[in-house]
Amino acid sequence: MNKLVIAGLVFIAAFTLAQAQGVGPVEPTAGSWKTWVIGSGKEFRLPPPPDSAATRAEIAQLEALAKERDAAAQDLIRYWDSGSPGYRWNELAVQQALKSGVVANRAARMLALLNVAIYDATVAAWDSKYAYRRARPMMLQPMLRTAIPTPSSPAYPSEHAVAAGAASVVLAYLFPGDAAVFQAKAEQAGRSRLLAGTDYPSDVTAGLELGRKVAAKVIERARIDGSDARWTGSVPTEKGKWNGQNPVEPLGGTWKTWVLASPSQFRPGPPPAYDSEQMAKDLAELKEFRRTNLTNLTASYWEYYGGRASFEFYTNLLGQKLFEYRLDANPPRAARAYALASVAYYDIFAACWDAKYAYWQIRPFQLDPTLTTVFPTPNHPSYPAAHASIGGAMETVLGYLFPPDAAQFGKIADDESWSRLWAGIHFRSDIEAGRALGRKVAGAVVEWAERDGSR
């Protein structure tokens, strides 16, 4: 009998035992899930893994590496084994964006590119995993000491290496000055699996290569998404319009979207005219609102976590939920959650910015200079409110991913949305339009997810 067939039978027997103990194979059909950029997972199927003789030689390498597990090696293993394969890469991306002072629109683009690359690469990896069903090292050599539990999925290719290859290339594209840093991180991620004894060297090599190939496809799309266009327009001069200088990302509403046909697909109707009865009512509400320490504290919290660093808040929240639901042990599900949330986050920015610069709605302090605010008003038009747009989108997509926590996400969106009125920087009409827009955009993402083959 062919030695690869024997290895496959060993794999099946091992997983039969695992299932009897209550642990089944991880998402065996994930290799056929719908992808974002590549045609399919099968399109990127790898050549067969090494034969049994080469596999025995690789096991010998792992046995030698097991003897090198000093404190530094254990730290490396623990670091990269925390969370799903994409967890650390999202963490690193957020830290890089904060350090670099990237505005939220561009951070949204960063996260979408990163997580689409990791997701598509993971789907491709799962296609190869279950096409070849390579047994994990410990299944063929039970005496091999592993530093962590062996994952309940085939070995080839390494899912951590796949994520590392994809993420490192995307981040190097976005932050070319730190390309060498990300490359080194990818090599560390791969080595951690060898030191742990859960993956063969050829699994890691193939995984890194596969991730990089998928990332190249994502970057091809990124180069033509319109984010490098230069604004040559001008700020409106007519009465009742926003009248600041150097508006933030005025072309952000023209960038290519992932799910929406265009950023204007759900554009809300016009805001109230500056001299209308509705606007007078909205302005009076702001001037009459009685601020408290709590409303000021909430407004200040969301000024940071809902605006300049909303990407940090929602990345952390999603990571927490993946841990709570034990999806950190399910790489395809975790990658799917990161991708859906990131795509919704990016598309709502594009949709919100489309409307902002379609209407150039005046800000409250511009309409009435006597109005005081809790902090300076962001430098872009008022309608619709970005915080409410983000809140509406994220409550919808996270509620879809984690239905038992829908009320929690709704409460977060409430605070995020209304904190802008409490701060005096948005009219009620801005907030209501933004929240509705966010829900519509994320609803489109959820519709996409319902047809991705993962159910």
Task: Lay out the secondary structure.
Layout (H helix, E strand, L loop, with lengths): L2 H18 L31 H15 L4 H11 L5 H14 L3 H29 L4 H4 L18 H16 L4 H18 L4 H22 L54 H12 L4 H16 L1 H15 L6 H29 L4 H4 L18 H16 L4 H18 L4 H23 L5
Helix pairs in contact: 3-8, 4-5, 4-12, 5-7, 5-9, 5-13, 7-8, 7-9, 8-9, 11-12, 11-16, 12-13, 13-15, 13-17, 15-16, 15-17, 16-17
Features:
Vanadium-containing Chloroperoxidase, domain 2, mainly alpha, elongated
In short:
The chain is mainly α and 455 residues long. The protein has 17 helices and no strands.
Tell me about this structure.
The structure is a single chain. This protein is mainly alpha-helical. The protein folds into two domains: 3-222, Vanadium-containing Chloroperoxidase, domain 2; 252-450, Vanadium-containing Chloroperoxidase, domain 2, CATH 1.10.606. Helix content is 62%, strand content 0%. Helix 5 (104-132) runs antiparallel to helix 7 (159-174).
